[in-house]
């Protein structure tokens, strides 16, 4: 019973994540720099970069949706998520970002990455609970 409830929470969380990444896609294609939907919301970017990120964000939305339908995808999703968090961390620590960002915005960039990491931890925990009785 507990695994069934955990599976429902996981499925809903993955679908919510997919909806979030669709929002990221729309924001990037529209060029609307909303903190949370743009990690680097205060750094200038070119429209082609934003559209490329939007395409990749749509891929993440589909990846999350696929995981919500087949939990067997979860190890791949979690691995990609960890690499993504590490990648954003390296970018946040780079001299390029430090040179382009206003000092107060670095905390905001880290906030977005922390939010993504918290979401990843959330779905990982629910996946573990859902698998507990397998």
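^ structure tokens above, recovered residues below v
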């Amino acid at each position: 019973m507990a695994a069934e409830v955990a599976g429902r929470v996981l499925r809903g969380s993955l679908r919510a994540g997919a909806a979030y990444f669709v929002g990221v896609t729309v924001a990037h294609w529209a060029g609307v720099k909303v903190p949370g939907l743009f990690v680097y919301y205060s750094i200038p970017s070119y429209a082609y970069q934003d559209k490329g990120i939007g395409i990749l964000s749509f891929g993440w939305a589909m990846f999350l949706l696929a995981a919500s339908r087949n939990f067997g995808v979860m190890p791949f999703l979690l691995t990609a998520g960890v690499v993504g968090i590490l990648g954003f961390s390296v970018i946040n620590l780079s001299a390029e970002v430090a040179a382009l960002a206003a000092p107060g915005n670095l905390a905001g960039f880290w906030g977005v990455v922390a939010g993504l990491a918290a979401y990843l931890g959330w779905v990982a925990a629910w996946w573990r609970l859902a698998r507990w009785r397998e």
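The mean pLDDT is 94.
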